Amino acid sequence: MSLSRLLPDRFTLTLLAVVALASLLPCSGQAAVAFSWVTNLAIALLFFLHGAKLSREAIIAGALHWRLHLLVFACTFVLFPLLGLALKPLLAPLVTPELYLGVLYLCALPATVQSAIAFTSLARGNIPAAICSAAASSLFGIFLTPLLVALLLGTQGDGGSTLDAIGKITLQLLLPFIAGQIARRWIGAWVTRNKNWLKFVDQGSILLVVYGAFSEAVVEGLWQQIPLSALGGLLLVCCVLLALVLLCTWQLGKRLGFSQEDRITILFCGSKKSLATGVPMAQVLFAGTGIGMLILPLMLFHQIQLMVCAVLAQRYAQRPESVAEV
């Protein structure tokens, strides 16, 4: 295992640089209002391109493997929230109450798409099933995450109802996604050809949200409110949560009789939480409130999951090929 696989990638380093910039030069006042409009437009563009990239064939292709998808969804939207609640008496004292709310928000999010598929591919798992599960998780999360946020946090950020939260998500995220699906017949090939540089739209929208969120949080005194011990505690909380989910997903796949390729897919799709979806969704769900502290656990968990899963994927990739794979 190369040491480089354990080091933060360029995007993570850029993310840290943006947090540092927001800490030193936060955006405030009328500039923050204008910046918020730009961020909302970038988020809409992000989900429009997601819709244009995802073919309807890919959505339908893996749908027949319903047992695997059901287990992945259960891990993403049931196991994670239950662990978040069950571990609260043990882990909440390690961090501030606000940070643990961020942990609960993390538990309510859908799975990643790109990294789950990439790790499944590297580990020689069931790639078509991974594509379908990851894409469906992201899509269903638009509706399930606001419901889980209401149950876990007891709020939708601005005091509205769960239906209001779903309405906001639908308007700002789902409609651009559907528009992208409709436009796919005309721009799908162009999006595919230019996917290497279009990824900067994904990353750019996240960076905009993170800068805006941390600017607001810094103005409100974020770093004065979080002691160094709480940051160390948050690291431990994220590690414990990820370790338990990885153990549960692997054991459930094994005990329910899935093949090794399917178990690998369940492991990588069922243990992930999406930074790309979670940060923009927090911007919508918690509009009018500071989300800097809320997304801090997600940012930390995201990097830990990438590092750990890189090690696991490389380990599974080194196993001998079975007859079925040859």
TrEMBL record:
The chain crosses the membrane at residues 34-52, 64-87, 99-119, 131-153, 165-183, 204-223, 229-253, 274-300. The keyword Transmembrane helix applies. The keyword Protein biosynthesis does not apply. InterPro entries: Na+/solute_symporter_sf, Put_Na-Bile_cotransptr. Keywords: Membrane, Transmembrane, Transmembrane helix. It comes from the Bacteria. GO terms for cellular component: plasma membrane. This is Bile acid:sodium symporter. It comes from Aquipseudomonas ullengensis.
